[in-house]
Structure formats: structure tokens, C-alpha cells
Amino acid sequence: MTTRRLQIAFFGSSLVSAYWNGAATYYRGIVKALAARGHRTTFYEPDAFDRQEHRDIEDPPWCKVVVYPGDDPDVAERVVAEAADKADVLVKASGVGVYDALLESAIVYAKRPSAQTVFWDVDAPATLDRVRADPDDPFRALIPQYDHVLTYGGGDPVVRGYMRLGARRCTPIYNALDPETHRPGSRDPHFAADLSLLANRLPDREARVEEFFFRAAREAKEARFLLGGNGWSGKALPPNVRTVGHVYTADHNTFNASARLVLNVARDSMALCGFSPATRVFEAAGAGACLVTDSWQGIELFLEPGREVLVAESGRDVARFVREIDEAKAIAIGAAARKRVLAKHTYAQRAAEVEELLGARASELVAIQP
Question: Rounded distance, CA 256 to CA 258, Å?
Fold first, then answer.
């Protein structure tokens, strides 16, 4: 098979920093796996929201990173033009945070005739709600002009939503596991707990965190609860909850290994739409953690409830799991989850899906060179 190696220009929030940027793990997994298949990506990210001051990784050998100013739209337009001059594929991810409307338009009009354009939506339920609510939203007219819409999740409801808005093609590319990055780690007393949650404080998730985490802590007063993530300072906490602030990605394996149970709480839009497993689901499963997740439609497509994941309908259910699931049972559930994601849900498998969609199947894996 002849290999068609693609040059990809990817405009996203940040590849090198997960600071207030939950998509970083997803971007890294996809781009790294595409590199292993012979494709080369340049990731363009704005210097914004203090992310460059809170880098988790240095520029990786499998991707060129270009950081451009976050306060100069003229420079952003020039960067798009320069990228379009060489790219076979131009990707605009949702939620860059600055220049979103500019980038969505510029990429469509700057591409070479032979190039493909991709809108990669990492929060498709929220994007669709926004566009449907506003007939004058400028992105509405751009949707049919992209060759592909790829989404972080959402399943058939999201696909149908985009197709009704004129998308040529819409395909979910779900979160997954990078086995080299997320694996069983050693325990650290700093992260020790009966149940831990890693989640930034966001308006569209706080009510669910209140129910599934804080209510559980109040119900299971005898247990130790740990909360990681940004934005929780100033929040009134139950006495058995301890906070550790931002947890860098290099510490995620240790964080997941140090609690008996690890909780995932979906954002409102993701939970309502379903079929949207967060990066945390695969990080925790890859680390062999016993994962508890709030209930959302489609979880069984990724992990088997009761055997590979514990599904809670309420905070009371979470408290019950904390009381009833002992260490041995937790280890068994975590091991089963890890086996499942290694077999069915790796970024290598996701990259192969992307490659097929873009019409560029590689003939063999290639070594990543610095």
C-alpha cells in the first residue's frame, strides 16, 4: 500500500499545557498517534490564559508547536495564511478561547484547492446548542464549507445535529488511551483518599459535582475525599474533603493510583447528550483505577457497568460505593477496565479512523524521530 503522508496544520487551545484546558490530553493522544503513522502535524496555539506559564510538557518530538500572540488578530490571520500554504489538512478545533470566529472563517477561505478542512469539536453539544439558538451565529454558514466535522463525542445525536445544519460529514472520534502515558503508577500519600475527583470548577459542571462528589462526602462522613483541579478555593467544603489544586498531567497516574476509587463527573452538555466519555475516563482506566462515573447514555459502549466501571445515578450511590467496594474489589474492577481500554480504546485505533476519513492510510508504523 502506498503511504500518503499528510502535513496537518492544527489550530487548538494548547498542546503543551493542560492548564484550564481539558482537551490537552486528547490532542496529545491523537497527534502523537498520527505521527506514529507517518503524518506530521504543526500545532498552532495562542499565548493566552497563562497556559505557557503552566506548561505540562516541552515541545514534543512528534509535533511542531507554534505559539502565536493571543492579543493580535492580524498576526493570527497571517499565521493561518502561512499554514495554509503548505498544509494538506487544516484543522480548527473548537474552544481555542481567542480568535475562534476569525480562525473558523480564515481556515475555510485560506486553504489550497487540494487541501481538506476539518472542524474538530471538543464540546459538540454546547456548540450545537449555541448555533441552534442563534440563527445569526456566523459559524452556522461555515459548517457546510468544512470537508469534515469531527467530534470529541456525542454519538448519533451530535451527528444528526450537525447534518441538519448542513455538515458534509460528521464523525465522532472518541477519547482514548495512550498506553505509554497513562499506566498504573505508584501511590503517593499526598493523593491518598477513599475517593478522588480531578475536575476544574466550571459553571456547567458545578451542580453535578455538588451532587456526585460533595453530597457523597456528606453522606459518607467517615471516608476521605480528595478534590484536584482549578477554581475550588473559596468553596465551602465538608470537613472530610481535602483539595490539592491544579494537578499536572505528569502526576495523573499517581493521582489515580493513590485513591481506592476515582470519580468522573461529566459536564452538563456532555451528560445530557451522552456518548461523551471524558479524557479522565480513559486516563483512570489506563492507570488501572477503579472508576466511578455519573450516569450518562452510552457508557456501556466503552466500559461494562458493574465489571469495568461503577455507574452512579446520585451522590447517594457514590457514597454507597465508597462504603461497599473494598480494596480487592476495586483492584479487580480497575484491572478489567484497563484490559478493555487497551484492547478497544487506544489513540492508535482512533488515529487509524482519522487516517481513513482523510483518505490517507499509511502502510506501516514509523518510528517517531526527534
Answer: 6
Q: What is the pTM of this model?
A: 0.91
Q: Are 55 and 313 in contact (CB under 8 A)?
A: no
Q: How is 173-224 classified by DSSP, letter by letter?
A: ----B-TTTS------GGG-EEEEEE----TTTHHHHIIIIIHHHHH-TTS-
Query: Residues 274-301: pLDDT tens digits?
Result: 899 999 999 999 999 999 999 999 999 9
Whether 345 shows a pLDDT value over 70: the answer reads: yes
Domain of 119, CATH number, reads: 3.40.50.2000
Span 34-43, pLDDT tens digits: 999 999 999 9
Helix (H) or strand (E) holding 67: strand 64-69
Same structural domain for residues 166 and 219? Answer: no
Same domain, 171 and 203: no
Given phi > 0 = left and psi -120 to 50 = alpha, else beta, which region is 24? alpha
Average pLDDT of every residue of the chain: 94
352 shares its domain with 338:
no
- If you write DSSP's letter for every residue of 261-310 in order, what string do you get? EEEE---HHHHHH-----HHHHHHHHTT--EEEE--TTGGGTS-BTTTBE
**368 and 36 Cβ atoms separated by less than 8 Å:** yes
Q: Tell me, yes or no, whether 184 lies in a domain.
A: no
> Is 244 in a helix, a strand, or coil?
strand
Q: Which domain holds residue 306?
A: 189-344
* Residue 344 pLDDT greater than 60, yes or no: yes
Residue 313 counted as domain residue: yes
